Amino acid sequence: MLPSATTPPDPVRVDVISNGTPWWEVVSSFGPLAILLTAVITGVIAWRNVRDRREADQRSQWWARAEWALDAAMSEDPPRQEIGLGVLDSLAASDLAGPEEVAILEVAWARFLPSEVDGVDGVGDNGAAGEPIVEEAGQ
Questions:
Q1: Which of 8, 30, 38, 62 would you label with 54, given CA atoms 20 to 30 Å apart?
Q2: H/E element holding 120?
């Protein structure tokens, strides 16, 4: 039968044979996940950087206070010396004072304490002869 101008042609059947989704489409679908993972990793690294910098700044300030306290402890003025030793005691109890810093402060206590404390010759406030008064941080 010949088609006429008023009748539509018969539909053509097309069979599409697919071997699955191409690999580049599968890989590209993971793009948003990769971006999110990169952002999370970058955020964690930045947070750790800020935390480490803040701790370093706090340690720097701790050491500046320790220098002031050591200077005050070496003073010839007894009230200033007493304040310096008190500040050294507080600094030794700080979380920022590591074992090395506490050891330095213990040497300072032994060096700067007068031989007569509380009216008892050679005995510090903690009752131990010749021992510094500073307690290690964390106790």
A1: 38
A2: strand 120-121
Query: For residue 106, what are its two tokens?
Result: 């213990």
Output 103-106 pairs: Cβ under 8 A, ≥24 positions apart.
Answer: 104/66, 105/66, 105/132, 105/134, 106/132, 106/134
Asked whether the beta carbons of 125 and 133 are under 8 A apart, the reply is: yes
Provide the 3-class DSSP secondary structure of residue 137. Answer: coil
Q: Which of 104, 112, 102 is nearest to 139 (CA)?
A: 102
The residue type of 29 is: S
Average pLDDT over residues 66-91: 88
Record the tokens describing residue 19, joined without a space: 């071997």
CB of 74 within 8 A of CB of 114? Answer: no
